[in-house]
Amino acid sequence: MDAELVDWELAVTTAKKLVRPGPQRSRAEADEIVSELRRLAVIAEGHVQDYTQLVPAGPPTPIAVVDRPEWVRSNVAGLRVATTPLIEKLSDQSRGRLAAAVGRRVTGVQVGSALAYLAGKVLGQFEVFLPPEEYEAGGAASAPSLAKPGAPTPVGRLSLVAPNIAHAEETLRVVPRDFRLWVCLHEQTHRSQFTAVPWLREHLESEIAAFIGATDLDPEVLADRLRSAVTALRSAVRDHGPDTPSVVEALQTPAQRAVLDRLQALMTLLEGHADQVMDAVGPQVVPTVADIRGKFDNRRSGGSPIDRFLRRLLGLDLKMQQYRQGGAFVRAVVAEVGVEGFNHVWQSPQTLPTRPELTDPGAWMLRVLGTRPSMSA
């Protein structure tokens, strides 16, 4: 039955048509980059585990070095899994009304266009929702199925986007080997977070389900929110300030914003932790880390006016804020109680920092550790 909200095949086709080709390399050069990324990913894994004290609880998850089209395809596979609860929520009646109001093919083109933009930017990621049948890079795409009783729980895949890493190191004029290891440290930290903390993936799923549960599917309500999104779009064109709402934010209901606060707090912690690990481990194993960090931070905040506008439109500026705020939180806690003390954050969902605590690490330490920090709040 054709019940999905998005024409996923069209999304993949659209993205592959729009995505820009990566930097030109000979076959030998490309093979060398892929080989070194695989090797450095394994080296980074050891460094990350030694520093974070996070040890995977299950079998090792796959590591894949992919190109831009494969990144698009695998992310569509993951999106199909992540949106399954939303599809289940739709009744036959509302499904038809929503399809009439939005259109699967139009949505497919929109998703594909966004993925084409992102496919040229992402250096790597831990694909949390990638279904097991997609673990092999380049495998045939297939529709996700709901987990059956007794079936193994998907654990994700670490993907490194080779052409984007090669393009970034060329643009930034950094030492390739150092930059590749630096990127691997970041992505391996995310991998460790989800493989060493057994409840983390399920918690993220439950929060996404709660976000979807707060979604109002009435087409008239959606139309009102789309009008709000247009207003936000106009504001984004005129003003790139931090208080300007993204279109993503404008489409949320009040109930969704409450869930989003928790989701943003979690993602801020995860991104900040990965950033802190890069800075803690980097000086020992990446000789040119100071040069890389300075140039990469400029790259994050830079870009053309169109690039900055698209980041604002898609809500990607939130990710940059997460790096800064989350990193400051983790550094403050580690400086006060060490890595072992910080790792109490992984005990349960209740020990995760709230959004207010992310700007007040002392409050988190007092609540979770019962320790009054010596630093000023």
Give the CA-CA distance, first to last residue. Answer: 56 Å
Global geometry: globular
Beta-strand percentage range: under 5%
How many helical stretches?
A: 17
Radius of gyration: 21 Å
Strand segment tally: 3
CATH architecture of the domain at 1-142 and 153-196: Up-down Bundle
Low-confidence stretches: 137-152, 232-243
CATH third-tier fold name of the domain at 1-142 and 153-196: Lysin
Tell me the name of the CATH class of the domain at 1-142 and 153-196: Mainly Alpha
The CATH superfamily label of the domain at 1-142 and 153-196 reads Zincin-like metallopeptidase, N-terminal domain
Share of helical residues: 55-70%
Mean pLDDT: 79
Strands in their spatial order, largest beta sheet:
1-3-2
Order of helices and strands: HHEHHHHEEHHHHHHHHHHH
Which structural class matches the secondary elements? mainly alpha
Biggest sheet record: 3 strands, mixed
